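Q: DNA adenine methylase, please. Structure only.
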Amino acid sequence: MFARADFERLATLMARIRGKAILSINDVPQIRQVFSGFHMEEVSTTYTIGTKNDSRGQRGELLISSFGGS
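A: Structure for DNA adenine methylase:
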């Protein structure tokens, strides 16, 4: 499991990169806070991997990018 500090470090690295960066990650409040300075797009995805049925199904996902969307 990743700690908030890990996501903060990733956000810092994404902000410093010279090229474009995009990240797909679970849509949770902590992630929205850490990456608030980036362009975010909400998408829905189906999780099909997991040993428990309750870990499968539709979930919210965020596409976070260092560049604006279209």
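A: Brief note, in case it's useful. Residues 4-65 form one domain.
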